[in-house]
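User: Fold this; tokens only.

Assistant: Input:
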Amino acid sequence: MATSAHVDTFARDHLPPPAALPEFLFELPELQLPERLNVATELLDRWVDQGQGGRTAVIGERDGQPFAWTYAELQQRANRIAHVLVSHMGLVPGNRVLLRGANTPMLAACWFGVIKAGGIAVGTMPLLRERELQPIIDKARITHALCDARLADALRGAQGLCPQLAQVRFFNGDGGDGSLEAEMAAQPSSFATVDTAADDTALIAFTSGTTGVPKGTMHFHRDVIAACRCWPPHVLRPTPDDRFIGSPPLAFTFGLGGLLMFPLAIGASTVLLEKVGPDALLPAIERHRATVCFTAPTSYRAMALALANASPRPDLSSLRKCVSAGEALPAPTRALWKRATGIELIDGIGSTELFHIFVSADEAHAKPGATGLPVPGYRATVLDDQGRELPRGQVGRLAIKGPTGCKYLADERQANYVQGGWNLTGDAYLIDDDGQFVYQARTDDMIISGGYNIAGPEVEAALLLHPAVAECGVVGAADEARGQIVKAFVVLKPGHTGSDALVKDLQDFCKQAIAPYKYPRAIEFREALPRTETGKLQRFRLRTEG
């Protein structure tokens, strides 16, 4: 380890012991990173120093009107925020700073302000309430927070539960006395970015905590830069003229990478919008002439269905790259989007623990039903329960090694995620004859019925081919005779009504599309399915509710 710039050594002190860490690989020439490294220097200061500060960096909307900040303007705001953090809020390098807000240029400026000051950014999903914030604040021992004024109530409630959170500033409010903006106005526009070590922690990303106690995943400065140098240039291949847009929150590493780190790494621009559901994303793409879109499979399906009935149809002619991640991409959704737009989706699997995508395929190698190949810089394989590599065609546990890897914050679950130097993502995969990795299920989502192993996502993909189905979720339900049966929760398209006749039609349809033993023996119609804020289907809730 290089000499740390962190005065507050909490993060380094609570890293997993060396024996519990995965094996890190830096096999690409571009991954030979220096010992001193700061993400803000690489992604923001560098462009200004090179005379490109006038390029557009971030675009937002205020009162329905677009506005843009150049790289120089984003840097100046981040510098002023860094001064507020250090001079007014007493931050020392290594302190953790809670960041709360929907995607806006100001949230991006806060993120870089924290990093410039040597702090550790801890993003949180905007919809979290005080009792959900409390374990995050306690686990990471957070002392500072920068929060959108519209989310003030939940944070103040959390402050009452967490007295160590002593320093809080609010932004995106009226900008009056006591606001972050008012304090920024009195600060210099220049700031000497802290000379952090490459292996100083830059951010702690918390998992959603939907199935238990949240896990904090620590990422070094080198992790972020390594991620910028693997998947984007080798699979996405964006250009400085691209304009990124999408729905994942910056608190989610899929969003932080796709909508902030990756565009700024190449001098491109990004559109940060607060509310970007499928209904809002299509007109936003048209309005901002976006070229690269990041969102979840569910969103692509909803947008494709909306396009089929849109009059007038949104102008998506600017769009050239579409990235799907966050959950498995069903083959029918891929086909539906391509029919609607002519664009082949770039699929990928990543994880909060490894920061971003590590298995993916570009448009030329995209294959229905398959996720893709190991991203250059990463190795991937499929292991059995004893940790042995399996031959092609056999289902096992996806295992990954690369320049990033799991580093849980003081968490015994590190031993489950890292075994034998590999990161075990919790996904069941097989490798097909072409070497492509094909998703089967989450390892805890495999349904064992009458002695058969059935992957819920495969049944979901079959159901989605039916013209009446808008979305669906498939889980195992307890059954005395079979141990479990396949149960489907189905949301119907407008104009269709659930009935016994439709249940039988869906069952017969599935028997024609996949092996008959996999068909859903129980079907329940729902108005909506439970999803996380990032769009992931919460199958565990379907299991408990159904």
